[in-house]
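Deliverable D5.2: sample structural annotation.
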Amino acid sequence: MTEAKWYVAHTYSGYENKVKIDIEKTIENRGLQDQILKVCVPMQSVLELKDGKEKVSDKKMFPGYVLVHMHMNDETWYVVRNTRGVTGFVGPGSKPVPLSEEEMRNLGFTDEGEDEGKPERMVIDFEVGDSVVVTKGVWKDTVGVITAINEHKKVVSMNVDMFGRATKIDIEFGELKKL
């Protein structure tokens, strides 16, 4: 038997979880647990900041794709390829190309499976040039224009009008609201 590798199946957008469940049901019904080892939809925790409130949510890393760890043969190819919602494998023509070990590590996978220690990605609802108002602290109700965003420190630099001059201040993400 060939070595099990990770393959990428292309799905209709929004059908990733349904495809995962359908493949898992087929594995169980046909007794293919030793040939198709794992099916997953890679997710990433995302820290979103909207209207000054932080919210952590899970987002699909690759919408429209499902990863399948399997021994490639005619039967496993047929099972995955003919699952409702799957449009094909990633690779030239009908020949699936497995992901390399390095590619899997870069995606946050280890030999034991998915690594839970993936870094969070941050999504904020403002950008450089936006007018914002400070909602808390000593600068409360101050209006300014964002000049720089530091996602690592979770602060923005902005210019505010003080004594008739533009003055730069740094404010934390959670203390701002977009105008």
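Annotation notes: The first strand starts at residue 5 and ends at 11. The longest helix spans residues 16-30.
The annotation will be released with the project's public dataset once the embargo ends.
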